[in-house]
Amino acid sequence: MRAAGNAVVLTNYSPHFNLYMSDILEQPSMVETATMNDHASMSDHASSPATADVATNGATNHVAAVTNEAPVIAQEAAAPVAEVSSPDSLQPAPETKPKKQKTVAQAAATKRSNLTIIDPNVKLGGGYSDAERRELEMLYGTALSTLKDGEIIKGRVVTVTSGEVVVDIGFKSEGLIPKSEFALTPDVKAGDEVEVYLEAMEDKEGRLVLSRKRAEFTRTWQKIVEVQKTGEVLSAKCLRRIKGGMVVDVLGVEAFLPGSQIDTKPVRDFDAFIGRSLDVRVVKINFPNENVVVSHKVLLEEHLQDQRKEIVEKLERGQVLEGTVKAIADFGAFVDLGGVDGLVHITDLSWGRVSHPTEVIKLDQVVTVVVLDYDDNKKRISLGMKQLTPHPWSEISERYKVGDRVKGKVVSMTDYGAFIELEKGIEGLIHVSEMSWTQHIKHPSQIMQMGGETEAIILNIDQDSKKISLGVKQLEPDPWTMFLEKYPMGSKHRGIVRNLTNFGAFVELEPGVDGLVHISDLSWTKKVRHPGEVLKKGEEIDVMILGIDLDGRRISLGHKQVLDNPWDNLENLYGEGKDTEGKIVRIIEKGVIVELPLGVDGFVPISQLAFFPIKNIQDSFHIDDTLNVRVIEFDAENKKVVLSATEWLKSQDRSALEEFNAKHPIPKETLEEMQKRREDGGGEARGPRGGRGRGKKTAAPVTAEGEVDLAKLVEQAPSPKELGHFDLPEEMMEPAPPAPGEELAGME
User: Fold this and answer.
1) How far apart are CA 48 and CA 34, in angstroms?
2) Is the predicted pLDDT of residue 460 greater than 60, yes or no?
3) Residue 590, CA distances (Å) to 152, 174, 429, 623 in order
4) Nearest-CA neighbor of 683 among 671, 672, 695?
């Protein structure tokens, strides 16, 4: 700081502050000044002329401040202006006697007694010329121009070091930029004018943040946006491969080139493009993520547009063309005809069966095709390859005849048979019924496999329907023609039970030869409800040949016929009036079925089970109970034995009756009903099921004490002759033979 006349002149200050002070000193006002130790701090405060007071109380060095209160202070000050006597310090103005009443301005002046009041009429430093003033005003306007973050501005290179470049943009401080960001201009030097990107006017440490790389990117991004609008073609260098395409360099910016946009046909080797340069067009820009998508395909399609139009105009059905296989799908292949794609459907690749197009053609293969159809509206071209060769059925009669032995490959199997490919476009069907003379084939996979070769005999050729019937079993002699010699009627053989059905059992006589034993031919004496009651799978049994149907390929067998018919001699054991013993094996609605000695089944009607009325047989009789019975009917021809427990009891003494009654007690409900009948004075006789008798009046067989009178029960029981003839229940009737074809289902 130096003195100039009666004023104070500040030294060691910035041009900005000089300009500011020159403007202030020319105003007719009082100015407060103080010592300057930090020119940067003064520069900051100089940018705010309206600042009232920036001096901080308690600071070591007082900072000069300009206040709007200066004019008031000048008018109200009672003391004269003090002169500065020392160039290194400011002397405070002499104190004046305070008036009794002070104004606000006077109070402020007194409070600021440490400040020196300068006469505004005195020019400091001799003033400025007009030229100096214009230059300072220009610098003043430049320094305080408005700057915003995110702008590209021009700056001047101040210094270049080994790692940084110092750039001045006319701000209060200079910016440091890594030298690596000047990769495109490595020869930058001091004094060069460069564009930089203002990222932040101040960071956390108060430094100016600039970026050369960001400025270059922004300029490039602006150009890319403009190029997308104009459709300009750019050069792109393929850098590396990523998922779905390539990363390319466009004007120094990394862009994405999708795999589908590299060429008009699918690209299979992306690595072949690395390092190559392609002409591209910007097709999409993602502004938020700053992503660019380019395409090389659009340029190729534009080039092929005229060529495609020319080809389409010349297309016609039946035209033979040459093309390259462009893509292969499950349903066919796409062929490039020179800018136009056509589809060869899988069914038009070959006259033969094709599971996948790759069996006939491969990618990039040059093929000859014929135009089958062209849809001008949908721009679809249907092509064919097999149509260029003669149809294999055109000369079928010359190559194949009925009875010929042929060989082919199994190409398909269904539940009803297998298709055999004799040659491309010629297939025959082997029905499951033509696969074996003896076995019952349910599915072709039992004797053959997909893709395997097999021999067959041609059975029929239908040229109109393009069908050929084949047979495998015809390769061998029909074994059924020798069955009568090997298995004569009535001959006995041993076989293995292979399957059980509701109507019988299938027995294997030899591999592939099965016969049916009907359920009625399993036993002479037992009423078999299911073959599982007497047989098991895998069990060996003896059988007799009962019949052979050569046309139907069926053999009827019998198991019981191996033994003599016991019914011829059973009358001696089970004739009418004979007494025997039986075990209850089944309880039915009409009575019980008992097993007699020698395994013979007999029937005891419900009326012949007991003397008392029976409503529910299971209340008094149970499975495996043993009954003493008497035969009341015997029919060897119909295998019928009817038995009676009551008839046997009639011939026994009272102790036998009591023992029977103890084993098979009268149900409580039946006793109550009998007691009620006695109280009513008796009534008509009732049968064992509660039915009325034959009109004979009987007394209730219950005493006054509620005890059963067994003698009366026996006396009132009707005889079998009075009840008449007894029919066998349905459960003991012979089962009906199987329906036609039913036994075949069981053999499967």
Assistant:
1) 17
2) yes
3) 113, 121, 57, 15
4) 695
CA distance 10 to 65: 12
CB distance 10 to 21 below 8 Å? yes
404 close to 457: Cβ distance less than 8 angstroms: yes
Secondary element (H or E) of residue 247: strand 245-250
Is residue 333 within 8 Å of 306, Cβ to Cβ? no
H and E: helices and strands count for the chain: 16, 36
Q: How far apart are CA 496 and CA 514, in angstroms?
A: 9
Query: Measured between alpha carbons, how far is 314 from 321 in angstroms, rounded to an integer?
Result: 11
What is the rounded distance in angstroms from the CA atom of residue 224 to the CA atom of residue 276? 21
**Mean pLDDT, rounded, for 27-44:** 38
Could you tell me how far CA 48 lies from the centroid of its own chain?
A: 70
Residue 83 vs residues 3, 4, 5, 75: alpha-carbon distances, Å: 9, 10, 8, 18
Residue 163: phi, psi to the nearest 5?
-125, -15
**What band does 41 get if pLDDT is binned at 50, 70 and 90?**
very low
Q: Which two tokens stand for residue 718?
A: 């009707």
217 vs 239: CA distance, rounded Å: 18
**pLDDT tens-digit readout, 641-698:** 899 988 888 888 888 888 888 888 877 777 777 667 666 655 444 444 444 444 444 5
Sign, CA dihedral 556-558-564-569, equals: negative
d(CA 270, CA 243): 10
List, in order, residues 6 or more apart from 135 with CB less than 8 Å away: none
Q: Give the separation between CA 336 and CA 215, rounded to whole angstroms.
A: 46
Q: How far apart are CA 344 and CA 71, in angstroms?
A: 99
Q: Which two tokens stand for residue 196?
A: 């930089």
Asked whether the CA dihedral 8, 14, 17, 18 is positive or negative, the reply is positive
Rounded CA separation 175/155 (Å): 10
Contact 321, 285 (CB under 8 A): no
CA dist., res. 647 & res. 627, Å (int): 12
Angle formed by the axes of helices 39-46 and 15-25, nearest 10° = 50
Rounded distance between C-alpha atoms, residue 598 and residue 455, angstroms: 57
What's the rounded Cα separation, in Å, for the pair 73 and 106? 7
Higher pLDDT, 74 or 625: 625
Q: What whole-number distance in Å separates Cα of residue 299 and Cα of residue 297?
A: 5
CA angle 616, 588, 651 (to 5 degrees): 75
Cα separation values, 165 from 174, 540, 613, Å: 10, 106, 126
Q: Identify the residue whose tokens are 């930090």.
A: 38
pTM, full prediction:
0.40
DSSP 3-state of 276: coil
Q: Among 721, 722, 701, which Cα is nearest to 712's?
A: 701
User: For residue 454, what are its two tokens?
Assistant: 């097999």
* Residue 649: predicted pLDDT: 86
Cα distances (angstroms) measured from residue 677 to each of 61, 661, 715? 141, 20, 17
User: What pLDDT is recorded for position 735?
Assistant: 62
CA 653 → CA 578, 608, 648, 649, distances in Å?
18, 18, 11, 8
Looking at every residue in the chain, the average pLDDT score rounds to 75
Could you tell me the two tokens for 565?
Answer: 């018919």
Residue pair 593/603 in contact by the 8 Å Cβ criterion = yes
Single-letter code of the amino acid located at 365 = Q
Query: Which residues are CB-neighbours of 634 under 8 A, at least 6 positions away?
Result: 570, 571, 574, 575, 576, 640, 641, 642
Beta bridge partners of 335: 325, 342
- Which residue intervals of 232-352 are DSSP H helices? 297-314
CA–chain centroid gap for 179, Å, is 55
CA 259 to CA 246: how far, in whole Å? 7
223 token code pair: 């150009």
